[in-house]
Amino acid sequence: MRLGTTLGVALAVLCGMAQPVWASSGCDLDEVVGYQLVRKKTIEAFIDGGRRQFGYQGCVADRVLIFTDNTGVRCRGTVVQKLDVPAAYLFARSESDMKLCVGDQMIDVVPAR
């Protein structure tokens, strides 16, 4: 392999590794300009009407999404979406101004209490 080719491959690998993990999500990141990426979590279940159910079936106001670490957020709006155990990216500007990116949907959420 020539030096130029080796250098090109090395740069491509480095650039790919430098890409933020949430860049692969389908969410419109214009919606979170000014927010900070807090963490990546996996949604394991949701609580609706006092019943815990496995998986993810979108958001409805007041539904609680439960992550694999047993923390959760409460939905503020409605998003129709069904995924088995999706990754979610939590963005926050403050404790009362948070957004959750799931698949290609951005959801307004607050901490579950």
Main sheet: strands, sense, barrel: 6 strands, antiparallel, barrel
Shape: globular
Trace the largest sheet across and list its strands: 1-3-4-7-6-5
- First-residue to last-residue Cα separation: 58 Å
Tell me the β content. 35-45%
Unreliable residue stretches: 1-19
What is the CA-based Rg, rounded? Answer: 17 Å
Molecular structure report:
Helices cover 14% and strands 41% of the residues. The protein is built from 1 helix and 7 strands. The chain has a 6-stranded antiparallel β-barrel with strand order 1-3-4-7-6-5. Mean pLDDT is 83; it is low at 1-19.
Ordered list of secondary-structure elements with their pairings:
Blueprint: H1 3-18, E1 36-48, E2 51-54, E3 64-67, E4 72-75, E5 87-94, E6 97-102, E7 105-111
Antiparallel strand pairs: 1-2, 1-3, 1-5, 3-4, 4-7, 5-6, 6-7
What are the salient characteristics of this protein?
113 residues; mainly beta; six-stranded antiparallel barrel; 1 helix; 7 strands; globular; disordered N terminus
